[in-house]
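**Protein record**
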Amino acid sequence: MFEESASLLLSNPECVVPRQVLEELERIASGPGPIHRRRAARLAIEALRRESCRVVDTSAESADEAILALALSDQEAIVATADNELRRRLREKGLPNIYYRRSRHGLMLEGD
């Protein structure tokens, strides 16, 4: 995903992750949920570490609020997410996002 997003953006963006997101992924990975969800969370954690993503602290209470706060604080930020509700909130605020589109088997950029 990181290589494809760099190709889509025609640049090599810095990966920044709110601590709340990492903590949520860790809870999911070690929690009682479905195995495919736990596995996806573990893969996401591994990818964040492999790509040396910078983990940042925010005062937000939830992962989504932390993502929104960071995106609003940086006019060059582009959020990568598979969360449809978060994408809706990003659109409402005019914030760009990258998401995976199954029908096209690839990443799509939404917004400016």
The first strand starts at residue 16 and ends at 18. The first helix runs from residue 2 to 9. The mean pLDDT is 89. Strands lie at 16-18, 54-56, 79-80, 97-101, 106-110.
